[in-house]
Amino acid sequence: MRKIKRIFVHCTAARQTQTLNDLLAEFKRKGWKNPGYHYVVFPNGVIQQLASEDVVANGVYGYNKESIHVAYVGGIDNQGKAIDNRTPEQKEKLLSVLKLLKKRYPAAEILGHRDISPDNNNNGIVDPWERIKECPCFDAKVEYRTLNQPES
Ligand SMILES: [Zn+2]
User: Fold this and answer.
1) Residue 37 near residue 59, CB atoms below 8 Å
2) What's the 152 CA to ligand 1 centre distance in angstroms?
């Protein structure tokens, strides 16, 4: 198994009607061999695993080797603006996935995609859906801080 340092939280930056096939098609368009996330949580609370945890996913350029990526479907409104539109089911299931992962990788830190700085030397195009300042459209470090705190 890989050494996991970070558990990244993402939004898919799509309408909440986005299906698994839509998402997989998007990865394909980007030319990615592996999916962007290990787990995706849909608005109805269904959790889909897209990759085994020992596989490197494409969530955050430069960080993927030591990361697990978890995303919820949504994160933009009808105008395409960033919004935290998680359903209660998504919030609940996100938390349960993160709890499980944290138990499996106690040394890993849970954080949002936007919590890391971009690699400014990378001249690749930043897709709007991966704007680092917005994804996952809520403050994951604050919301999951009790999970990150070491057990006392
Ligand atoms: Zn992201």
Assistant:
1) yes
2) 31
Per residue in 41-89, pLDDT (tens digit) is: 999 999 999 999 999 999 888 899 999 999 999 999 989 899 999 999 9
The end-to-end CA distance of the chain, in Å, is 27
Measured distance CA(148)–CA(110) in Å, rounded? 6
Length of the chain: 152
Give 10-48 pLDDT, tens digit per residue.
Answer: 999 999 999 999 999 999 999 988 999 999 999 999 999
Both tokens of 95, joined, read: 């938390």
Distance 106 CA to ligand 1 centre (A): 22
What domains, with CATH codes, occur in the chain?
A: 6-148 (3.40.80.10)
